[in-house]
Amino acid sequence: RAATSAPENPPATLAEIARHLAHCRRCPLAETATCAVAGEGPLSARIMIVGEQPGDREDLTGRPFIGPAGQLLDRALTTAGIPRSEIYLTHAVKHFKWTPRGKTRLHQTPNTAEIEACRPWLLAELSALTPQIVILLGATAAHSLIGPGVRVMRDRGLVSLPSLAPHVILTVHPASLLRQPSDRLSADAFNDFVADLRLALTS
Ligand code: URA
């Protein structure tokens, strides 16, 4: 049987997860998104990166982290010396949440109900992959896998969460770096982000 996959009976392989996810109606976001964006990366990945949700470009193409935030993540990974091809990239929420603003679609932060509705997919991915290191990008990923009380700027760095993975790193979301008030990426903020990613090399 298909589709909305009960949390107590999750699909077991990444391919099955992606197939079932395509039909997910666990929350209303599927109605306004183009598609569910499944995770991407090799089954052998030691590192799993969890973002917030697909953005406009990801929603249109079905691929994670290919828009502006994804390009900044690529640059940070390259600077840190971590090949993207060895990482499994996914999101806490699999459908793009947006509101119209003129001709563009403005990103909206997922709410608690949406994060919770999507969590079984993320947990299924974790079980299928059993990564050595999980990197949580931003508050939504942290909320999903650590809890609502986490504060990214206060708690960033290595966090102890052995039920999730041997090593868990919490850091900012690259989209937050793009939204810096100076309208240009602060070198300090970028370097701090890279330093957090580099924790994966020594973990
Ligand atoms: N934000 C994310 O978390 N992921 C993307 O792919 C794009 C924006």
Automatic annotation (TrEMBL):
Signal peptide: none annotated. Residues 38-194 form the Uracil-DNA glycosylase-like domain. Belongs to the uracil-DNA glycosylase (UDG) superfamily. Type 4 (UDGa) family. This is Type-4 uracil-DNA glycosylase. It comes from Haloferula luteola. The chain holds residues 275 to 477 of 477 of the full protein.
